[in-house]
Amino acid sequence: MSHEDVLNPKHMPHDPEKATLEGKNKFLGFWFFLGGETVLFASLFGTYLALNGSTQGENTPEHLFGLELVFIMTMLLLTSSLTSVYAMYHMKNHNFGKMQTWLAITVFLGLAFLGCEIYEFYHYIHEYGFTFRSSAFGSAFYTLVGFHGGHVLFGLSWITALLLRNRKRGLNLYNAPKYYIASLYWHFIDVVWVFIFTVVYLMGKVG
Amino acid sequence: MADQTQSKPMHKVEYEKQQHKEEMKHQVLTFALMILFTLIAFGMVVMEVNSYFIIPTLIILAIVQVAFQLYYFMHMKNKGHDMVALMMYGGAAVALLTIITFTSIIWW
Amino acid sequence: MSTATAQKRGLGAAIWDYLTTVDHKKIAHLYLVAGGLFFLIGGLEAMLIRIQLMKPDNNFISAGLYNEMITMHGTTMIFLAAMPLIFALMNAVVPLQIGARDVAFPFLNSLGFWLFLFGGLMLNVSWFTGGAPDAGWTNYAPLSTSSPGHGVDYYVMGLQISGAGTLIGGINFLVTIVNMRAPGMTYMRMPLFTWSTFVTSTLILFAFPALTVGLFLMMFDRMFGSAFFDVGLGGNVIIWEHLFWIFGHPEVYILILPLFGAFSDIFSNFSKKRLFGYSAMVFATVLIGFLGFMVWAHHMFTVGMGPIANSIFAVATMAIAVPTGIKIFNWLFTMWGGQIKMTAAMLWSIAFIPSFTIGGMTGVMLAAAAADYQYHDTYFVVGHFHYVIVGGVVFGLFAALHYWWPKMFGKVLNEKLGKLAFWPFFIGFHLTFFIQHFLGLMGMPRRYWVFLEGQGLDAGNLISTIGAFLMAIGTVIFLINVVYTSVKEKKVSGDPWNGRTLEWSIPSPPPHYNFVQTPLVRGLDPLWVEKMDGKEGMTPAEPLGDIHMPNASILPFTISLGLFIAGFGFIYQVDDTVWLIAVFAGMGITLGSMLIRSLKDDLGHHIHKEELEEDIKKGVGR
After folding, report:
1. CATH homologous superfamily for the domain A22-206
2. How many beta-carbon contacts under 8 Å exist across A and B?
3. Which of B4, B84, C317, C620 keeps 20 to 30 A from B73, CA to CA?
4. Which of B70, B29, B40 minimizes the C-alpha distance to A74?
5. Does residue C214 lie in a domain region?
6. How many beta-carbon contacts under 8 Å exist across B and C?
């Protein structure tokens, strides 16, 4: 396939993200990476579960966590997952403009989520004096939730870079795989969050 | 280097669009169910349901929700995902072992 | 744009070529040289250890330096010597064995190498900045968290950086093997080396993230005041042990499985028979990989996990002996009735079988949890794991290097010197480590700086040290062989061993696109199938046409360099916050390079049909 066919395909194939060998490789390689990320987060969850009883003073999970904010954050991230599905739907229909719009909405929802998380951490540190260093539970909590937050930040930067880089040209066989795996990454972030709100917040509240 | 750039007959394009639309409907339904599971999970905690059942239930709800995310939102149910499924289940197995370890043989 | 035509234009151009290369064969050279250098450094550290233990109450090196030696010997040999040498073989051979022109991610392949190299450099810089890591290669907390100075910090940052490189390399090979096999190369026709690379890469994918997390926790504790391993604040040191061994035991199989694959190819080639029990061998490889994940806690029998956990892990560990036994018998049956050619590669391979079997048997002894309380942390354990790692991995590396050297460099390593290197190494190896089992049973603990006179340990330790010198002599002869071969030996054809698999169907060293035309694979040992049909080479699966190749790039180097700089910043910001500048500068270089990679289109280039026809005329193609 010539470069021209990749950058300006005359007709878009059914699965633009897997039309080239590079695309197929990216698709598979990224999924494998997510398999590895599963173990990475499992190790963090394991550490958290081993240490969530190691609290100091009043700062126990039950005492600290407020479910309202967590619920809002969950809704934001779940919705952003749906909007990124919409973006991929429009990619399959070769509608570049709508894909960009839906991804932009995804980015805004992600930003809102990140804002809530920063507020939450700020709140714990300043209202409760609950920090990364105050107990093993504190270390484990901020590390697990912070790793997820870091993933959100990276995902947002990644999608934003894609949006800006490609705004003046349409969908092609070179950028379609990039969009596709970025959306996979975003879904995976949501997968991790489902376990975080269940294991850290809900189970923390139940005690 | 097959001829992917061959022009497609119009009716095929229409057919594919129709299929995508069908799939999108399933996605929205999936999303509704995920929201529902989340509401149930939060609701159970807020209403302080008997704690003997609540933790297993919460975990099952989370796993089902994640399965939806993987199979529908991330298209693992579609064909061409065999190797993907193998590696995700591999990762999940190691993850499970890790979690069991850290909740059982870590001294406390 | 096209670096394809990059010819030799002096040293500067050659260095630039290697800094920017994305060609898997050149990356194999890089891995080989870097891994070889670290192997020598690790060997030197081993010699210093053995000299210190030559006689009772010796004072050759100080106690603190001794701790640094044992730590760096283990860490260097595992992470910086064995792993990259294995990656060198994988890079050199796997794409050729499956009939691919390249790997799936040439850019990431190069990134993986540079990350490994900078991580390795980082670790070794510690020698010159106030002391190397000294808490053992396992780096157990709280010994590691309370180790003064910055040694352990170097361990953390160095392994974090090189570990990321390994993970990337693993994913690259997985996708290469799944997506880029030539037409007809089904999974059950892949050579065993490719199969074992596949299983190994899976292990890397699932094992390394646990190390990543462990190292992050260690980093946070040492550099940012968190409390994961601080018992005073509710921390738990067993978390490190579990994370380390969840990674560490699969790591052992990551090291040995590729060499199992290499041995399989070598036995089959030099016995002039197809591998005995091919499908059983594949099954055993997969099974070892699978079981390899369920046994890590046998390193922790004495931790106090309780009798149930100990029993489960003991049984799982013993179970691994079954697929390993299948392999040993299949190798023996491959040789049985074959036309055996005693080349240097074959010599190393045959020596491997009894040596490794001894290591396997002591492994089963150690797996018995009740008995392990006696063996734990004695020289019995040291003897055991050197029997499997030297007797398996190092013998395998020597065998595989002899076997594939002509494919990598176009010349066969001198056979006489090859055999001359083998004998002192082989004898020295058994002298060094066999006696250590008995030293251990007599109660000599591992990692001790000195032992006392009059406890019956003197003679054994002296013998062990003499053996170590013999191994060093063997290694030096091998190095002489490398130099001698490159100066004196003549170029050979692409198929000096009368090979069976695809890599022998193309010239040595291969053109950078490997295959002029993708071959059509018609069975197991595809080249042999064609030879038996009386054909010269492989039947092409496609007409001659343009070949798409990736572009060279300096970005993998700069990404890794940035992390290297940031690593120092992280280590020293504890002393002085000025060092945060290094953190930001380094991360800036890394993220900036990643951004450039993301924004700049890189579609690769084409080698045109006309150039290929030229090459064929010159005899490069076939």
Report:
1. Cytochrome c oxidase, subunit III, four-helix bundle (1.20.120.80)
2. 136
3. B4
4. B40
5. yes
6. 38
